């Protein structure tokens, strides 16, 4: 009879090894903790483990063993180091939580989260996202909003100005009421922006009246316009001026009405005559030989000039 009772007790109470494996299988890959440098990730893992302990009715004495069984990688290395330093066989769950938070959620990280809550603003978040962020950070800064009224005021101050201006016009008593009104104002605001965008799109799509057709330019006009920039007046070519023309300059046409140059060939125009030539005074007038008469050859010992 006693043997039968013992066998039934063993069937009703599975082994510790089976309980741990079942616990790990129940949590799945999300229950494994590899260690992290993000304090909020470690905090969330610890909260999920505690939630599973309540659901599966894990005894207080087995919680440390179940939790550390989910450690992998860096977290497992950290736990082995802790066990070498002191005996953890009788560690309570409360002391384990304290030790875990000191490692993965130090006081400096908590202070940073508290500061983030103090300066929390909606920014690009929706009201729903703001509410989620508010609840996440409030855990580390509950001393900043000890009453419901302060909690309500904090949410109002974090809202965007267009939403906050509408929300503060109501008399609020709870956080949930502030949140509900903010969600309604945001939905109305989003609808107005959407209608405005659709109206702007219709204005852009509206066809413009036909413009007056312009007379096309002829080739001659285009060519003339192109030549106004730099035109060679020597040969009429475009692209350079006459002073830069590589071709020889054209001879200028002779004007019959202009006086001819009667200077003696070979003598510079402004060169003064020798006053002693031929014994004639310097100011004595002489008759200029016409250009069409041939020059007379000089005879040795005589000076030819016209009297």
UniProtKB/TrEMBL annotation:
Biased composition, class Polar residues, residue ranges: 281-307
Keyword vocabulary terms for this entry: Metal-binding, Zinc, Zinc-finger
Comp. bias intervals (Basic and acidic residues): 216-228
MF term (GO), any: nucleic acid binding
UniProt xrefs under Gene3D superfamilies: Zinc finger, CCHC-type
Top-level division of the source organism's lineage: Eukaryota
Annotated region (Disordered), positions in chain: 198-231, 243-307
Ranges of Low complexity composition bias in the record: 252-261
Name of this chain's protein: CCHC-type domain-containing protein
Lineage, top ranks: Eukaryota, Viridiplantae, Streptophyta, Embryophyta, Tracheophyta
């Amino acid at each position: 009879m006693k043997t039968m009772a013992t066998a039934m007790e063993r069937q009703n109470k599975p082994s510790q090894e089976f309980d741990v494996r079942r616990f790990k299988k129940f949590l799945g890959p999300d229950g494994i903790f590899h260690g992290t440098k993000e304090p909020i990730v470690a905090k969330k893992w610890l909260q999920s483990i505690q939630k599973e302990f309540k659901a599966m009715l894990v005894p207080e004495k087995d919680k440390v063993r179940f939790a550390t069984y989910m450690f992998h990688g860096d977290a497992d290395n950290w736990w082995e180091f802790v066990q070498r330093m002191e005996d953890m066989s009788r560690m309570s769950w409360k002391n384990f939580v304290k030790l875990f938070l000191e490692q993965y959620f130090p006081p400096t990280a908590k202070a940073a989260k508290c500061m983030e809550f103090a300066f929390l603003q909606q920014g690009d978040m929706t009201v729903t996202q703001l509410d989620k962020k508010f609840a996440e950070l409030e855990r580390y800064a509950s001393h900043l909003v000890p009453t419901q009224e302060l909690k309500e005021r904090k949410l109002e101050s974090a809202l965007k100005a267009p939403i906050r201006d509408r929300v503060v016009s109501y008399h609020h008593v709870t956080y949930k009421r502030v949140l509900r009104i903010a969600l309604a104002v945001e939905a109305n605001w989003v609808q107005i922006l959407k209608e405005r965008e659709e109206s702007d799109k219709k204005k852009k799509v509206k066809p413009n009246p036909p413009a007056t057709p312009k007379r096309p330019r002829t080739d001659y006009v285009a060519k003339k316009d192109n030549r106004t920039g730099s035109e060679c007046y020597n040969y009429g070519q475009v692209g350079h001026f006459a002073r830069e023309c590589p071709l020889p300059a054209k001879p200028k046409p002779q004007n019959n009405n202009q006086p001819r140059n009667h200077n003696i060939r070979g003598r510079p125009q402004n060169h003064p005559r020798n006053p002693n030539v031929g014994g004639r005074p310097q100011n004595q007038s002489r008759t200029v030989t016409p250009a069409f008469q041939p020059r007379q050859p000089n005879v040795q010992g005589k000076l030819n000039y016209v009297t």
